[in-house]
C-alpha cells in the first residue's frame, strides 16, 4: 500500500508540483493528538492499549486537494463504519484523559503531496486495497526540510 501510493505521489508531482511524501512516511491519521510532553507518553500508550476494534479493509480510490494548505491527498469514497467507530472510540478515550482535540468531522485522508500548486485533473485512480490490522502511535520528527514519521508503538486490531 505504501509503495503503490508512493508511486502515485511521485507521478502526481509532475502534474501538481509540490513535494511527494516518501513511501515510508505514508500513513492514515486516525486522531491527531499534537505535541505530547514526554512525561505523558506512558499514560498515552496505556490509553491506546485499551482501544479495541476489528481489523478491516480500506480501499483508497480517490484523490483530492486542499487549497488552503496545498495538500494533495488520497482517500475513500465512503468512510467504513468500522473505521469511523474506531476513531470515535479513540477520541472519547483521549478527551476523557484530558487531551484537547480539534472538533471537526473525521475525513480519512493520506497526504500524498505537500506544497502542491494545483489539484490533479482526475479525482480517481486505480484502487489501492489496504488490510488494516493494527494502529500505531506515531511521532512526527522535523529533519532539515522534511518530516519523518516514527512509529513509537503499535497495537493489533481483532482479526
Walk me through this protein's architecture:
By secondary structure, the chain is an alpha+beta fold. Helices cover 25% and strands 34% of the residues. The chain has helices spanning 2-16, 41-49, 81-96; strands spanning 19-20, 56-66, 71-75, 109-114, 124-132, 134-143, 146-156. The strands form two sheets. The protein has a five-stranded antiparallel β-sheet with strand order 1-4-3-2-5. Strands 6-7 form a two-stranded antiparallel sheet. The longest helix is centred in the middle third of the chain and has 16 residues, at 81-96. It is globular, with a radius of gyration of 16 Å. 14% of the residues are buried.
Brief summary of the model shown:
The chain is an alpha+beta fold.
Give the overall silhouette.
globular
The topology string of helices and strands comes to: HEHEEHEEEE
Q: Biggest β-sheet, characterized?
A: 5 strands, antiparallel
Overall structural class, as computed from helix and strand content, comes to alpha+beta
Radius of gyration: 16 Å
How much of the sequence is in beta strands? 25-35%
- Pick out the low-confidence regions: none
Annotation, overall tally of beta strands: 7
Count helical runs: 3
In angstroms, what separates the terminal alpha carbons? Answer: 19 Å
The amount of helix comes to 25-40%
**Strand numbers in spatial order across the main sheet:** 1-4-3-2-5
Average pLDDT confidence is 93
Amino acid at each position: 500500500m505504501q509503495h503503490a501510493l508512493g508511486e502515485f505521489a511521485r507521478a502526481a508531482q509532475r502534474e501538481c508540483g509540490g513535494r511527494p511524501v516518501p513511501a515510508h512516511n505514508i500513513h492514515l491519521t486516525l486522531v491527531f493528538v499534537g505535541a505530547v510532553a514526554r512525561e505523558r507518553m506512558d499514560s498515552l500508550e496505556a490509553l491506546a492499549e485499551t482501544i479495541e476494534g476489528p481489523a478491516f479493509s480500506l480501499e483508497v480510490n480517490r484523490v483530492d486537494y486542499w487549497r488552503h494548505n496545498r495538500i494533495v491527498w488520497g482517500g475513500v469514497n465512503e468512510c467504513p463504519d468500522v473505521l469511523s467507530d474506531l476513531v470515535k472510540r479513540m477520541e472519547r478515550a483521549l478527551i476523557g484523559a484530558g487531551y484537547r482535540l480539534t472538533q471537526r468531522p473525521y475525513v480519512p485522508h493520506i497526504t500524498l503531496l505537500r506544497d502542491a500548486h494545483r489539484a490533479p485533473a482526475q479525482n480517481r485512480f486505480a484502487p489501492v486495497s489496504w488490510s488494516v490490522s493494527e494502529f500505531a502511535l506515531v511521532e512526527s520528527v522535523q529533519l532539515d526540510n522534511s518530516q519523518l514519521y516514527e512509529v513509537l508503538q503499535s497495537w493489533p486490531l481483532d482479526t
